[in-house]
Each structure stands twice: as structure tokens, then as C-alpha cells.
Amino acid sequence: MIKKNILSIGGLFTGLLIFGIFLLTSPPKELENIAWITAGVALLMTIWWISEAIPIYVTGLIPLIAFPLLGLYELKVVASSYAHPLVLLFLGGFIIASAMESSGLHKRIALKILTLCGTSPSKIIGGFMITTALLSMWVSNTASTIMMLPIATSVITIFSSQSKIKNNQFAIPLLLAIAYSASIGGAATLIGTPTNIMLASILSETYNYQIDFIDWLIIGLPVALILIPIVWIFLNKIIFTVSTKKSDALEKTLKKLKKDIGKPNLTQKIVAMVFTLTALLWIFRRYINDLFQANLNDTSVGLFGALLLFIIPTSKGNRACSWETANKIPWGILFLVGGGIALSKAFQSSGLALWIGTFSNYFYHLNIYLLIFLSVAIIILLTELNSNTATVATFTPILVIFALGLEANPLYFVIPTTIAASCAFMLPIATPPNAVVFGSGKLDIKDMIRAGISLNIISALIVSFVSILILDVVFDYELLGVPNWITETEINK
């Protein structure tokens, strides 16, 4: 705690000092003053994000204050980033997720999957991974982990009474499995984790390039489907040795839990129907628009689903979702995403991004695929020490310009690195799911490092390879060459 406080205070004053230096000094010859000051704001935010000098969500509000105050951009221009359509998409997703939690639907889903997976320790871990990943595709990875932890704790208690099964043979791999699968599952959908929304927002606002729900699913889901079984194998067979023997005690417990939870009530049924409808609209939106000449978008669908929950009655005077329930959503994430969009726009409009891109010339001699892998590996390493959302917000604009400097399609850099930001498995501070399971008190940091080092390397390779393959084969993009949406953006400017 003392070390954290020292880091926080040190980061606070270091960030202010560096920002002050940028304010009081002149920019390089080839850089405008507005770009120089923007760089100072970016460094201030980065240092405060890394050190958590103030809550990372509050740091996301800095552009809203600094840019108008310094005369760089008008308030209404900066404020528009915080009401970006993709920020509102996240809002709709959060409300639906809150309704799932408050109704108890998530527990019912979890128990259903667990009863289907069997009761041997290795199958239980697999069941928890599948359940957590599926939930995390629609609910925040933090919430998914919190949902699953009490169930996991109950299961661990049952097994701990069996002397033949030691803690490191079940409890540790189970808890790590929940944390890792929550992060992996969140990477599979556009709304699964803030990093995905952050990237889509930056590309949409800065370059008018749209990544919608189905686009991201095509890329993210295969990565998740490959990583989940690999992580299961590593946790069960390689890093730890998990028993495959069936547990009668656990089978009885699951039956009891299933009996206690009873039949689904009206609220759960309505939330399930609204959730299913929303997911189907996200997936088939393009086809619906073509068929009916409609103008549905991912944001309107998400907000429509949220609105239905406030409208549909479940009993006298009650609705499927109340404002008290919706008010518990993580509002800070919305500030963070908005701040990232505002910073990215400033990078472009000030000319800072173009200046950074000139440094790409130093890497022309390296293999382009190696550069993509190194970018992915660096992002994973940075995410171990920093918020993954903050990392994506900071480095996405830089990577776009870096790729353009190499005359390459930026998507081949920013999509793999964004997915990779959800693959930091080594430290408790790397991701909220890691922190949640570590807080159970049943894990040592050495356990996380032991499992995380190898999985970080493997995930970097898989994310890089699969992302490139899908962009090549499915989307028929070309790695080398500046894409049309970049050139059109430059013309419109």
C-alpha cells in the first residue's frame, strides 16, 4: 500500500512537471505549438494512467478541461467525444448487463452450463471457463468474474474437504481459469471490454472507418475459440496437474443449488428475451437494413434493448430494469472512452500524429510481420503494468501513424494489439479479472506469474497470426499499401 501511494504521489507531480515543461518550451521546428501542447497533455494523461495518480476514469476527463482552457479546441468540440455513438453503445450494453445481474439470470446460466460439463475437477474448470467467457462476451469481464467467484469458492470448499485434492491441484488453476477466460471472452465482442469500443471509437471519429458488431465478432470470436482450449490445456495439463476423477460431492451440491434457485421468474424470462433480441439484432443488423431499407446501427440497437427493459412490466409497479439497477453501471468507463477519443482527435488535427509517423522510417528494414508481433508483445507487457483501456487509448493513434509511415494498413496493427490488451495474464494489476481472483486470498503472485509468462507469449503469437489471417482471407484486405479510407479522410480534411 505504501509503495502504491509513493508511486501515485510521484506520478502526480511527475506528470505535472513534464506538462509544465511542454507549456514553457518551444516545439521542434517541424511541429506546431498546438501539437506540442497536445503531446504534453498526452504525456500527462499517460503518466497519471500508469501511476494511478488519480482514478484512471477521472484522468479521462482531462481533455475536457485542458483543451478548452489552453485554447486548443472549443469545449463543444471536445465534449462531443464523450457522447460519441460508441460511448452510448457501451451505455446500452451496461444497462442490459445490470438487468441480468439484478435479476439473477447470470447465476442461472452459470449453473446450467456447469451441470452440463460434468463434475471432475478438469471438467469443472472447463465448464467455468466456457461459462465465464460466454458471460464476458456480453457483460463486462469484471462483472463476469465477480459473478463466477462465489460459485467457484463454493466448489473449492467442497473439494478442499477431500484430502486427496490439494489446493494447487484445483483451487489455483480454477481461479486463474476464471480470470483468464473473462478477459478472453471480453475480447470476442465489440461490447465485451472497453478496449474494443475504444479502438472502434477512435477509428470512427478520426478516420470515419466503421467497425460494427459483426465485423469484430468475425475477428475476435475465432481468437477466443482458439485461446480458451489452449489456456485450459496449460492450466490442467502443463502448468498444473488437475484430476479427471468425478466428484460425487460436487454433483450433489450442484443439484441442491439448482433446486434452491427454482424455476425462472418473470423478470428473468423478460431480461433473457430482451438480451436475446438485442444480440440477434446486433448480429443480423446488416441483413435487416438491406431487407427493409432500414437504418439500424449498433448504438440504436443497444439503447433500444436498454429502453425495452425500462418499459416492459414484470409485476404491479415494477419493470424489468429500474433506475436504481441501471445507476450501478460503471459510469467511469464512459469517461475513459470519451477521453481516449478526444485525445485521438487532437493527435490528428494538431499534426502530432503525422510527426510521430515520420519515425517509422527507422523500421523499414524490419519484417512487417515481425513488427506486428513486436507491437502485440509490447502492448501485452505494457498492459501488465497499466490499464488495458488506457493503453489502447494512448497507443492506438500512435500505431495508426506508425503503420502509415511503413505504408501498411493500420488495421493489421491496431486490431491485434487491441485484442492483445485483454491477454495480460501475469500480474494481479494487469486486468480487473486478475485483481478480483487475486483478492480471494487463495492465490500467490508467483502462481500468476508462473502461469502468465507462458500464456502471454502464446497469446501474442495466436492473436497476431489469427488476426492477420482473418484480415487477409475473410476481409480480403492487403497488408501493404495505404487503404482507401485513410486517403479519403485526408482528402476531406
Question: How do the strands and helices of this protein lay out in sequence?
Answer:
Layout (H helix, E strand, L loop, with lengths): L1 H23 L8 H19 L4 H4 L2 H8 L5 H5 L5 H19 L1 H13 L3 H16 L4 H20 L10 H16 L7 H14 L5 H26 L9 H14 L4 H27 L5 H14 L1 E3 L2 E2 L3 H4 L4 H20 L1 H6 L10 H18 L2 H18 L5 H10 L11 H7 L6 H29 L10 H9 L1
Antiparallel strand pairs: 1-2
Task: Give a quick set of tags describing it.
493 residues; two-stranded antiparallel sheet; mainly alpha
What does this protein structure show overall?
By secondary structure, the protein is an all-alpha fold. It has a domain at 85-326. It has helices at residues 2-24, 33-51, 56-59, 62-69, 75-79, 85-103, 105-117, 121-136, 141-160, 171-186, 194-207, 213-238, 248-261, 266-292, 298-311, 323-326, 331-350, 352-357, 368-385, 388-405, 411-420, 432-438, 445-473, 484-492, and strands at 313-315, 318-319. It has a two-stranded antiparallel ribbon. Helix 9 (141-160) runs parallel beside helix 22 (432-438). The protein is globular and about 75 Å long. The chain starts with a helix and ends with a helix.
Helix content: over 70%
Count of alpha and pi helical runs: 24
- Global geometry: globular
- Parts with pLDDT < 50 across at least 5 consecutive residues: none
How many β-strand stretches? 2
User: What is the radius of gyration computed over CA atoms, rounded to a whole number of angstroms?
Assistant: 23 Å
What would the average pLDDT be, to the nearest integer?
A: 82
Measured by DSSP, the beta-strand proportion falls in: under 5%
Sheet with the most strands, sense and barrel status:
2 strands, antiparallel
Looking across the biggest beta sheet, what order are the strands in?
1-2
Query: What structural class do the secondary elements suggest?
Result: mainly alpha
Q: State the distance separating the first and last CA atoms.
A: 49 Å
What is the succession of H and E elements?
Answer: HHHHHHHHHHHHHHHEEHHHHHHHHH
